Amino acid sequence: MNIQPINSQINFGYKHKLKTLYKAGKLPSVEFGFYGGELTKDTVSLEHLKPHSKGGKTILENLV
User: Fold this and answer.
1) Phi/psi zone of residue 45: left (φ > 0), alpha (ψ -120 to 50 degrees), beta?
2) Which end of the chain is least crowded, N or C, by CB within 10 Å?
3) Bridge partner list, 63
4) Residues contacting residue 30 through CB under 8 Å, at least 6 positions apart
5) What is the pLDDT of residue 25?
């Protein structure tokens, strides 16, 4: 079996309007992520406070 490294540029297709707005530069006051890391267009992501597996929904109140 030949094992290759995972391409870090893989896009799993998840888009949300908040992530799109951030990447477009329309949320300038957001500088740091939930865990304190600096956000960039390459590192921005959305996380669920309550995971889908535990019944969490993709609504604004459940996203960070």
Assistant:
1) beta
2) N
3) 48
4) 22, 39
5) 84
What lies within 8 Å, CB to CB, of 4 at 6+ separation is none
What is the rounded distance in angstroms from the CA atom of residue 25 to the CA atom of residue 22? 5
23: three-class secondary structure by DSSP: helix
Q: In angstroms, rounded to a whole number, what is the distance separating the alpha carbons of residues 21 and 12?
A: 18
Nearest residue to 63 via CA among 13, 16, 11, 14: 16
Residue 27 identity (one-letter amino acid): L
